[in-house]
Every structure is written in structure tokens, then in C-alpha cells.
Records
---
Amino acid sequence: MSSVDVKGVSKTFPQTRSGTATRAVDDVTLHVPNGSLTAVLGPSGCGKTTLLRLIAGFLVPDSGTIAFDDRVVAGQGRPVPPQARRVGYVPQEGALFPHLDVAGNIGFGLAKASRRPGADVSERVLEMLDLVELPREFATRAPHELSGGQQQRVALARALAPSPSIVLLDEPFSSLDAALRESTGRAVARALRVAGATGLLVTHDQSEALSLSDQVAVLREGRLIQAGSPADVYMAPQDPELARFVGGASAVPGRAVSSGLSATCALGTVRLTAAPSADDLVLVLRPDQVVLVDDGVEAEVAEVSFYGHDAAVRLSLVGQHTALVARVPGPTAPTVGDVVRVGVRGAVHAYPAPVRD
Ligand SMILES: Nc1ncnc2c1ncn2[C@@H]1O[C@H](COP(=O)(O)OP(=O)(O)OP(=O)(O)O)[C@@H](O)[C@H]1O
């Protein structure tokens, strides 16, 4: 096990023939505690893979340092090469060697530098199959005889077999369908915990990040916007854009009430989670905070997405240019064109409104 400390790391790709230089990672500082799993979350192109490749040693930072515990691996003197970093890497898909069976794939790293004298490769292969919760009989199967989720578990088993201190996973579930994605994700997180490895998981899927990790690190345009526990990132997002990205939210203009922890907005007076730092505010309403009530403000139903157990209802406040999303139990969902009444449940997060020129 090792902690990972990224300090002030930047990486710019030089100008390509077709465009300008890209600052893919911009002054990122991130601490990943020993034995924990951190999800690196952000939209496509925000620099997630580049950050992972810098930690793996496939890329060298332009500035800043990367350390595993107290051992600086990049940024001071000659960078430590990837093979000497004791890092396991699980790429997106198609990662298995098609000409080797499952045992050959899992034992691949062991057959090289990291094999301990006298260690039994086949015993380790079986241990690894147990760890990733696959039947031992799979050892003799070819990769094409496995499902996508099983293949990703084998890829993890291969990464874990040489007992790396750190495991880096680059969108390992992106090719799997929703149900398989969830079960494979949970199995992978369990295996990492049992192996005691420190993990970094790149994903653009906010529910995957929130449900699997101990810490969520959110990147936007190469910069680290927020790092915290899943609950912190969901309950106290750094800005309204992050609230929309993680969990979804409606942003409504509001005005602080001088007497304390409340604000007025198109939905009436609402309670705030903390004293506001400005008079003009942006109030962030989570879909589960927007509720259909008997005595609220009138809104017209613009769109309904039915998910079974619940439904997302897009609403437009009557006579106002305010759009809202409410999450209601599936069986109670209204239909498009209905006029309903809405209110706000619980305290809402407020941010200073952007200053207009
Ligand atoms: N080798 C490269 N040369 C030039 N630009 C690159 C290179 N690799 C990445 N980039 C650019 O750096 C930025 C960050 O890319 P990166 O792959 O790290 O993003 P990402 O968040 O992992 O995206 P995705 O989720 O789509 O995989 C992008 O604008 C990308 O075009």
C-alpha cells in the first residue's frame, strides 16, 4: 500500500498540426490516502486519463511532483520509469491478450520481473480468481469465451497479481451495460479493498463515482474543482455547475433575507444550508427537494422521464422564466401539460450570483 501525492502538477501537450497546445492537467494537487479508492470524475476531455498516465509514469509532468508515500517518482531528478513504480493499470477494454488463456493473462506480470523466487504462479492465479469472484474453472478459458464484465475482472486480477501498491483503472466499466456495470464495479471495489491496494478510478459517470469510492476528485478543463467524500461532493458542491454535474440540480435566482438563514425566490421563501455570503444568490435545488404539493407555486409539466421506481419531471413555473426538475415516485408522476403546484423541501445550497458587467 502507498498513498499518492500529486502536488502542483501540470501537463501541456504541444501544438498539433490542426490546433493549439492543450493544457490537459493544470496545477492539480490531490492526496489519495493509503488503501483508499478515489474516483477521478469529470466530462470527456477534462484531463482524467492524462492525470492517470502521469501517475503511472507513461507521461512526465511539466511541473509539480508526484510521490508514493515519501518516494518522489516524478518532478525531482530523473522520473522513476513505469515498471519500477509498482503500479497496476486496468485500461478501458480489450485489454486481455487474446492468444493467452485466463491463467496466462493473470500470470503474465508474474512471469516477468515481479515473480518471487519459488512462488507458484498457478496458485497465485487461483487466488486472484477468488479475489475477483470468478470461478477457478475459468483459468483455462480464452478471453473471447468470457463476457465483457468477466474480462474486466480478469484484467483487474492481472493488475493485482504482482501485489502492486497502487492500482489505476481507466474507465474500466465503460463498455458494459448498466446492470453489469454496477455489479462489476462493486466486485472490483471489493477486490481492491481485500488486496489493500490504493486505487484511482477514472470515470465520467457520477453515480459510479459516488457509489464506489471513498473520495471523489472532480476535474474540469484540467483543473481540480473539488476533492472530498462522496457525501461532501453531493451535499456541498463547490459551485452550481458541479451540482448540476453531480446529482443534477436546478439553479434559481434568489435574494438573501437579512434576518438570517433564508432567501426569497420564485418558489417563495426557502431555508438555506449556511449563511449566504452575498445578497444576490443562485439557489441550487436538487430534484428530490422540488416536491409536488397542494398549496405551492403553479408550474406546467413540460416533460416526464419515467424510470419505474421514480420519474424526473421537468417543470416551467407559470408566468415566469424558471425551469425546474422534480424527482417524484414513479406511480405519482403527472403527465405533460398538467398544471401542478410545487414547493421546496429541506434547506438549499446558495452561491453568490455571478457579477454582471
Ligand atoms: N497525446 C496527446 N496529444 C495532444 N493532446 C492530447 C493528447 N492526449 C490528450 N490530449 C488532449 O488533452 C485533453 C485531456 O485529454 P484526456 O484524455 O486526459 O481527457 P479525459 O478526461 O480522459 O477524456 P475522456 O473521458 O474522453 O477519455 C483533451 O483535450 C485531449 O484532446
---
Amino acid sequence: MCKVIAIANQKGGVGKTTTSVNLGIGLARQGNKVLLIDADPQGSLTASLGYIEPDDIGVTLATIMMNVINEEEFEVTDGILHHQENVDLLPSNIELSGLEVSMANVISREVIMKEYIEEIKKQYDYILIDCMPSLGMITINALVSADSVLVPVQAAYLPVKGLQQLIKTITMVRKRLNRNLKVEGILLTMVDFRTNFAKDISAQVRKEYGANINIFDCSIPVSVKAAETSAEGRSIFAYCPKGKVSIAYEELSKEVQAHEN
Ligand SMILES: Nc1ncnc2c1ncn2[C@@H]1O[C@H](COP(=O)(O)OP(=O)(O)OP(=O)(O)O)[C@@H](O)[C@H]1O
């Protein structure tokens, strides 16, 4: 059984891509077959895995979704790239923005990505979708395709307001489009454990949401190594295997798998 997890927060720069890469590779290191889907036209996930010019890639998520819309025949594995750390990637680039705009008049536009994922999921244990920082149609497609949503929250600003908007969208999707959608959990990222501010944010998130939503036990520390790894084309496990961020993402991978049990 494959589990599909959307990694979403409409706030930018909170660690969605970093979490997609390192949770994905963390799960692969623990014996799972993993597909990462870049659902952000910025192509940050694609670039983070070493494809530094996403706009030069021919077949992307946009191509696949266009094929579904036009009911064109295609191989379900078209466009999938293999990364040396044992994960697969369906890349994205700027074409996804154009697609999002042109979907306005498409019938059943919320379920286009799901139609594809239902086919490809037979080949994987986990599919992680790195969402863009907006709650537009591509993100809705990701939420409709997913079994659960993992929400990274940067522990450096007051996140309560932004989270309410996301939770509203999740509730709407659950009501109208995907009754089985769960919240995998809120993950605190870029936590500076030396400061009281980080502790305050953490306490605030737990107080505000902890009664209804899982807050992951592990949180991701702030670290220059984590910031550097985005430009390296590999995971934190390859770049800084003994560092605290590596240990945190290994813990997160275990926690996510424990949810299945
Ligand atoms: N634990 C960390 N410590 C320090 N820097 C980090 C950490 N995690 C991520 N970063 C850096 O913070 C920036 C934002 O991270 P990331 O790209 O993962 O966020 P995002 O939510 O995917 O952004 P966007 O909304 O633009 O897609 C990046 O430069 C990344 O390298």
C-alpha cells in the first residue's frame, strides 16, 4: 500500500522543499520505494536534487497533467528521473504556472493529478508532493491526491494566522473532494533551540493545535548545513551525515512510518 503525503504550507520559505528531499531520502534509506513530485513551478525540489536548470527539462509534472487533461496516451513512468540516493523524482518547472492558469476551464480540474497518482502509486511505498507556497489549483490537486498533509512551520515567526487559512482549505477539500484526507502532522522547522522565542513558538503551536492535530515529536533544528545542502544536489544524509539536521530527519522518517503501525 502506497501512502501519498502532500507537504504544504502557503507561507513561503518554511522548509517544504528541504523536508520533501530529506524525508523522502530518509524513508528510502529505511527501505522504502519513494517518488518525490515537485508541484512548485519554482522547481526548487528539482534543483535541490541536482537538476539545476529545471526549465531545460522536457517532461515534467505539467506535461503529465496536460496529457491527462487531453486524454492522451502516455507511459506512466514518463518523465521520472532517478536520483543516486535511491529516490525517484517527477520534476517541475515554470510550465506548471501556465498550466495552472489554463486549468480554469477544465472539467473536473481538481482531480487531474489524482488520476495520474492513482496509476503510478502501485510502484511506490511513499509519494511525497512538494507543494508551492499558495493554495491555488495545483495545491488543491495535491490535497485531493493525498492521504495526508504534512505541514512544515518555521519556528521563527508567529504562525497561527497562516495555519488557520491552511486548515480551512484542508477542511474544505475534506468536505467536498477527498473525505479521507488526514493531517499527518505539523513539523516545526528551523528551530533555534538556544532562544526562548523558538520555545515560545513551539509552545504556542502545541497549545493552539495540539489537541486536534498531531505535532511531530521531533523538530528540525536551524543549521547552516541544512541551508547549504539545497545547492549540493543531495540530501543532508549525504552532505552532513552526523549533523543534528540529519538526525532530526531520520527521526521524522521513523515517526512517519510509525503512523502506519
Ligand atoms: N533547518 C534549516 N536550517 C537552516 N536553513 C534551512 C533549514 N531548512 C531549510 N533552510 C533554508 O531555508 C530556505 C527555505 O527552505 P525551503 O526551500 O525548504 O522552503 P520552502 O517552504 O520549500 O520554500 P518555498 O515556499 O519557496 O517553496 C532555503 O534556503 C533552505 O536552504
---
Amino acid sequence: MGRKAEYSEKQKKGPGRKARKQGPPTFPKKSFAPLEVEDQKLSHRQKQRLVKRVQKKVVQKAKLKEKQAKGKQQVRKQKTYNSDSEPEDEVKKQQSSSDEEVPQLVPIPDIVKQKTIKGFTDENKDWLKLKKQQKKVLPKPEHESVDEDNSDEEEHSVGSDAEEDSEAELDSDSGNGFEADSDDEIEEEDSEDDGYDGTKVGKLDDLSDDDEDANSDDDFDVSDAETADSGENASDDDDDDDDDDKLPIERANKRLKKREAQEALLAEEEAQMAIDQQDVFKFPDENDEDESGLTLQEVQQRIKDVSLVLSDFKKYRQADRSRGEYIDLLRRDLCLYYSYNEFLMGKLMDMFPLTELMEYLEASEVPRPLTIRTNTLKTRRRDLAGALINRGVNLDPLGKWTKVGLVIFNSQVPLGATPEYLAGHYMIQGASSMLPVMALTPQEKERILDMCSAPGGKGSHIAAIMKNTGVLFANDSNRDRCNAIKANFHRLGIVNAVISCEDGTKFRNIISGFDRVLLDAPCTGTGVVSKDPSVKSTKSEVDVQRCYNLQRKLLLTAIDCTDAKSATGGYIVYSTCSVLPEENEWVIDYALKKRNVKLVPTGLDFGVDGFTKFRQHRFHPSLSLTKRYYPHTHNMDGFYVAKLKKFSNTIPLTKEQQEDDEKQLDEAIPTDQSTNVSNEDDAGAAEDTDKSSRKLLGKRAGKPNLTDIEAELKKKKLEQSKTKYVAKVFEKPIKVEKKPKANEPPVPPNLSTNGIQEKTKNIIDKKAKLKKNDVSALHTVLPAAVNGRGSNDKKQSAPAAQFNKKPSTPSHQYNKKQSTPPTKSNKGQKTLGAQSKKEQPAQLNRGQSPPAPQPKKDQPTPTIKSSKKELTPGAKSKKEQSTPSTQSGKTSKKSALVPKVKVNIDDLPILEGKPIKKQNLKHKSKQIGNLKKSKSGINAKPQTGNKQKFKNKK
Ligand SMILES: C[S@@+](CC[C@H](N)C(=O)[O-])C[C@H]1O[C@@H](n2cnc3c(N)ncnc32)[C@H](O)[C@@H]1O
């Protein structure tokens, strides 16, 4: 029958050398467990080791138990603090899980490599080590060195029958289904040896549980010693097992961390106790005069303290102090610390919760990042960025929300003077300024109005999106700022724009039917405090009132200028750089009530929703569609954007209602206050207010309307300024203050006689005629004014008029002033009045326009000529009359006694007070020169001539 077939499978040889090379070794602990099962397969040596190991294990476990029993109580205490101290099983688990990491953490020392080169020549030389030296190394106290050397030795011992052993282990592995390869098994063997040899191994040798147990025996001693040394409590014992596989430095580190954690915990407890126990914050005494001597740090500390009290008022309050008192104190301190006025700080405190307020205030102290907008009419952002980077500008795209914005981190060149800037490749513009235009979503070929456009940042953005098609109307009421629009549009290559300089509130009478309107309204600028810190201390309630009234007027006009039936648009975007609800939500809420518009989403996917309520006020719920931007949340200036859609061109109000609205806006009184006024005052007073407000409207057309409060304030200011003015410059004339009866125009004292008044009137008439450039009339007029009182009249009445109107300084106002008085009186003035009437639709702007001052400029030239020709003969009489004028109505007799020169010098201060005209000044300085000469007795004759010239000229 032959021999029986041998079916028992041959032992698997396992992966060959090539396979061994692959992958890093892994050492799951279980792969070493089922040794009993595979007992028969163990080599003799292995069996010996196993026996040893089991013996040692028993001894070591007994020791361990003993130790644990001792330190149990202390360990428990420490467990709460020490997350690392865990039961033995867990420790083992941890160790086994950390096993895999160990080989990576501990590199094979060079010594080992050298040794392996000696002992082994195959690919295993890297990890197989000679065992010979083991005995020499064992006595070494240092764990690390022992570890290293040990490993070498044991590797060597394993290495001697590496192939066999590994194969045996692999078999066992395959039987258990674990993944360890032959290398792992060999390592395991080595580690076991280490354990038995009682050496501390810090790397591969620690991988098995048995080894840990074995090693822990020695380690206990060591760690005990260490614990004793460091004075640490017994809780460390728990970690000893865990620590076994760690280097001393790691163990020290662990202890340090533990200690730190404990200390932190204690500190926290202490702080909490201090808070709980402290007699919190002592409210400063009102009579305490140390207040003024507080340092900034002390103020800051007090802000913190009061904030703490307010955060848990019941707990920390001082019994006799109300919340209001704390809030007041906080407001004062915040004002002091951040340099705000109380009004604005109060507004901000109303808007933000305390913590957010602090963030807002802090953020407002820091300037926002510098940003630029690519002008897509001329370049692409990528190209621009490249060009600027080449110039040493460090930049980045501004954000995902914009395709044209770049943020500048730093620059070696001034960004307002690079060739790219000059070529119009970009506009320096705040990030927030791009938002309203994005919300407007301009379309090509549309008709768009930018109602308050200067200096043209947003306007030029609109034009760029329109790709220079359609028409952009860029309007601003300020002529100087209009020039800035012009300059920017030129630079940026905008060719589809019409720039106008009109009062926005009147724009509906000029042109309407726009597809879209952007109203970037004038505001208090409370959102741009970091740019203009003066806002913090200068803005008052009056400013806010004035702004929001103007804003409401402008918004209604913007809506009226929009065509609801526009095929592509019918949208209005309203924006401000203010964070105050009065200038934002209130304005929109007002427009929602007064016009056929509704709020639509802005299309901006970030920003805080607008308020639907603010303190006791409630707004239309759709106001949540509007967006707010803050420096502390969006790292951009405080800003507000709302988008309205006009759904009907009809105005849902009767004409009367509209007029009422207009009136109301012109009165510029917030509803609450107006009711107060009407309640408090009688009907007559109310009427008066009405009239005055209408007056204001007339005078101030095109300018922000004044509230009653504002008017009052202005009055006060005016009076103050008068006093100042009088004291400093016009002491003499004002002293004379013999004001004519109420209805009469003020007449200077020296002209108080009827005849002189008549002559004055005549002069005014004639001069009005002169403005018609009637030179022939001039020659007839001037002889009539020969006595020069006309000029004196002007001298004194002009300043009077001037300081009455002085507080409103802008040039357009000045021009207006010039045109206003003539309308009140005679014919010549009527002509002027007619002129000004013609110009009225754009009063502000026209007022600013150069033609208005021209007649005055022209005036002196012919006067001088004529004075030369015709006035010289009457010089004497002039002197006689003009002299007393300076002596404030005293008799001509006295004046006759006064030396001529002195009189004229006395006149000089009056000249100083006149409106500054360059021409006048020139002549005056000449005159002064001459007069001084004459005073010194030189050239007496020409002096009179000069003086007359001077007077006539005036
Ligand atoms: C916030 S700025 C406009 C900034 C501009 N949109 C930009 O992006 O460059 C407000 C402008 O409104 C102008 N303004 C003030 N009152 C106005 C009025 N009644 N009509 C038209 N413009 C007015 C101011 O001259 C100022 O230039």
C-alpha cells in the first residue's frame, strides 16, 4: 500500500525577508498572551524564560498588592486631582495602547547601530542587537543606558536563532489571528528577557504586560525614592506603572504638570473665595474730592469693579446704592477712560450689553485695516495686487465677500502716490464703503443717482460695475467736495457720469425716474470713531437730531426720485457710517410709513441684523432685513445698510399731509420733544415756533434744519460770540450801541441824523445800480456820497451784519448773506433779490458759486477812479464828517480840534473787523503806512488825499 500520506501541514515559514522589511513593527499586547497554547512549540530557552517570568510575576504581584494597600488611602485623595492615576487594568490598557507609539518616539541609538553592524550583516542588522554585553550592563543604575544596552544584548540573543524564533512566534500569531509580524515577536522575546533581568527598558522592551509587571518591581523602588525625594505624596504610586515606560525627564515633566494643575486649581478657588468674600467695590463718596486725581489705571480698575457689580447686582451691590448710580458712575468712568462725551457714551450704553460695549469701545480705539478697491474699469485685482507687491506692498484679498477689495498690511510706498494709484487702478476706500454699492447691485445701462456722492468713492464703484454704460448722476451739495468727485472720476476713467452740485432734498424737482438711487447720507460719523476721534467728544444730541431730520428728508426725496416701474430696478439703498439707531432704523421706519416702499434683503451675507426694537421704541419687523456692521465684530467701520424697493410711484399721502410732513421735518424736532413743547407752551408760543422754523427753512434752505434746541443753542452761541467779538475787536462801536428803534435798520451813531441816513440810503441805491455794471451811474452816484459817510456807514454796518451771521461761516452762507439784505429794501436791491430768486432752486450751491461775489470785487475799482477824479475837491468836508464818527456822535467842533492823523488811526480797528477782502486789506495797509508817515509829520498834504481815497474806496 505504500506509505501513508503525511497530511499534517507544514509549519508556515511566514513572510520572507522582503516582507520583514515592510512596515514598522506593531506590538499589540495580546499577541503575546496565548503562550500556554503554543507551549509545545516553544524552544527550550523560551520555556525557561517563561518559567522564570511566571515566578517573577507572582513575586512582583505580591509586592505590588502590598504597596497598593499601603498607599491606597492617599491615592484616593489624589485621584481627584490626578487624572493620570488609574486602576492597574486601565494603566495596562493605556500602556498597551501607547505601545505602538514607543518605537517611533525612541530612535535607535548610534551605538546600537554600530553594534549590530558587528554582529549581524543581514537586513535585520538595524534592529537585532548583540546579547553578549547584557551582563556587563545590568549593574548600571541608569535606566536609559541599561535600556539601550539591554536591548542590544537581547536582540543579539534573539538574533542568534532569529529565524527560528520568529517563525515559531509567527505560527502562534497566525493561530491567534493577531497581526504582529515576526519582528514583533522577536521584540517580545527580548522584552521578556529584559523583564526577567530586572532591567528598566524604555522602549521596545516595555511592550508586553509581563514586562511592565516585571519592570514595575524595580521601578517601584526607584519611584518611591523619587517620590520621597521630591516630597510628593503617595498618589504618584498609582502612576508608577504608567511611568515605568517613561524617561525620567518625562516623569519629572508629568509631576510638574500635576503640580501646576493643583496650583491652578487652588488659585481658582482662592480667586473665587476672594470674590465671594471681598467687600466688593466701595462706591465712591460724592464729596470725595480725590476723583479728579484718579489715574487712568484706577479708572480702569473701577470700570472693572463696577462691571462686576452690575454683572450680579444682587450679590455685589452696596445696599444704599441703586443700579442707576452704578451705571452713572460707569458711564462717567468710561467717558473719562475713552474720552467720550456723556451723551454719546449713554447712547452706546443703550445699544450694547456691557461686555459688548467694552469690546466695541476697545475696537474703536484701533484703526481699521487699510483697504483699497480695484478699479475694474482699468485693471484686474490680480494684476493690481502683483503690481503693488512688486512695489513692496504687503497685501491680501479683503475677503470672500468682495472680488475687488484688497487689504494692505504694510507698504513701503505711500498708497496715495503710487503710479497705479495715479493711473486710477484703485481707490483707497474702507471695506464698509463697498457694502452699500454691493447692496445696490447696479446694472449696466441703467440710470442711477448717487445723491450724496462726494468724494466719489461709492459713485466710482457704481460706475465701474455699470462698466461705464448708462448714466450715473453723482450729486453733492458741497461744491468743494464736488471737485473731489470730479478729480476722482477723471483719475478712475469714469465717462458715464454727470456731476451736479445740488441740495439733495430738492432733487425731485430737478430730475427723477432713476432705476436706482444710492443715498449714502451725511451722518454724525459715530461709526468711524477710530478715523476721527473728535466724534467721541463733539457730537451732541443736537447733531443727531439735525442729522436724522436731514436724513429723513433726503430719503423721502431719494424714494421720490426712483421709478417704481423701472424694468430693472426701482431700488433705493440707504447707508450711513453711524451706529446710532436714530440715524438708521428710525429713518427707514419713517420712510416705510410715508412712502410706498418695502424693505428687501440687502444681499450681503454677513452683518448684524438691524434693530426691530430699541429701548421703548418698536420698529417695523422687516427692519431686521437691514444690516449693521461694527468694528469689534467685523473689523470694519461702524456702518448701516438698508435696501428698499419702491412698489408704487404714488405717494400714499395727500398734499396737505406731505406739507405737514415737510413742515415737521423742517421744524426738525423729534416727535417726543415737539409734543413736550406744545404741551408746555401756549398756542401763541407754538405759533412762534412755527414761524421761526419756517424762517429757518427759508434762510437755511439746503442746510440741515435746526431744531428748537439747536436754534436756542445757536442763539446762545451767537450771543457769546458777539460778546467775544465786541470785547476783542469792536469795543468802540459796540459801546456806542445806540440801536435804532426796533423797526429801523441799525444805523451807526455817527450817521444818526436824518440827513445822513438819507444819504446812506442813496448810496446803497446807487451801489446797487453799480452792480448792474452801470459805470456811468457810478460817476453820478459817487459825488453824492462825497462826504464819505456812506463809506463809514458801510464800515460799521458791515461788521454788525457780519457778526450777527458769523457763526455760520461757510462761503455759501456768506454769499447768501450778501444777497439777503438787499431784498428787504429798495429798488436796486430788488434787482439783486431777483437775481438770488432765480438762483434759489439750488440755493446752497449757487450761493457758493463764484458769480455772487463778483459785483463786490468789481465795485472798488471804479470807486477808486472816481474818488481820484471827483472826490478830492470835497476832501475837507469829508474830514469834518468822518472825524466825529470815530468819536461816537460827539460834536464836529470837538472833532475839529482833534488832529487829523489821530482820528484816522482810531478808525483802524474798525477796518480790522470788516469782512476780509484781499483788495481792501492791500489798500488799508497802504493807508496805514501813509497815515503813520503823516503822523510823523511827513508829507502832510498827500495824506489827506490818501485818506479820502481810502474812504471813498470803502
Ligand atoms: C457720507 S458723505 C458721502 C460719501 C460718498 N458717498 C462716498 O462714498 O465717497 C455725505 C455727503 O453728503 C453731502 N451732503 C450733505 N448734505 C447734503 C444735501 N443736503 N444734499 C446733498 N448732499 C449732501 C456731504 O457734502 C457729504 O459729502
---
Amino acid sequence: MDKVYISQLHVETIIGVYDFEKESKQSLYFDIEMLTDISAAAQSDDINFALDYAKVSERVIEHATAKPVELLETLLEQLAAIILAEFNTQQVTIKVSKPAAVPAAKTVGVEITRVKS
Ligand SMILES: Nc1nc2c(c(=O)[nH]1)N=C([C@H](O)[C@@H](O)CO)CN2
């Protein structure tokens, strides 16, 4: 299967468990991989047959900034469900990094893979 991907998509949003995290935005970086068959897009040279990474990026930013949650896990499950429901992909892997969360670490985060049922 082919893959369309988005690397290091930057989103500024309210997220976190602790009270101080609910007062100011933090940076998140998303890496997203979506399995899809690119043959129709390649043969037609038509964006309407492609899994549009720009539209996926817009949707991820829209959702991730819409309603605060505490855990990265919660946000990733929501985003995976949205991508599988709204875009032509059979499997999505999303990794989110929260670089300011642990000062002693370069970054921390969570990665999930979900398949369309
Ligand atoms: N597995 C997780 N661990 C932690 C999370 C999280 O979302 N998933 N969040 C926090 C805090 O919000 C942290 O980012 C603040 O230091 C801690 N651990």
C-alpha cells in the first residue's frame, strides 16, 4: 500500500493535565502517515483523486485547537477517528510530540496506529 504523510505539523494549543497547562498554549508537533492507493491520483493527475495532505493538515489543526483535552492519548484517538472517517485512507499512524513537557528530554509523546473497520 502507498503512503501519504505529514511531518512535524506544528499546532499551538491548550493541552495538559496540570492547572498551569490550562492557562497558556503549548507547541505540539504531529507526524501522520496514511495508507492509501495513489494510483487513481497518479493516473489522472487530479487532486480530487488524491488524499490531500493539505486538507488533512487543516483538519488536524482545526480539531486540535477546538476543545482542550488533558491527555495526548485523548487527542490522538479523536484525530485518528476523524481522519479515518473523513479521508480516503485505510490505516493511519499519528505521532504527537510535546517538546516542552519534560525539560530534561528533547521531546516526549505518544504514537498510535488505527485501522478503518
Ligand atoms: N502518557 C502521557 N503522559 C503524560 C501526559 C500525557 O498526555 N500522556 N501529560 C502529562 C502532562 O500534561 C505533562 O505534559 C506536563 O508536564 C504528563 N504525562
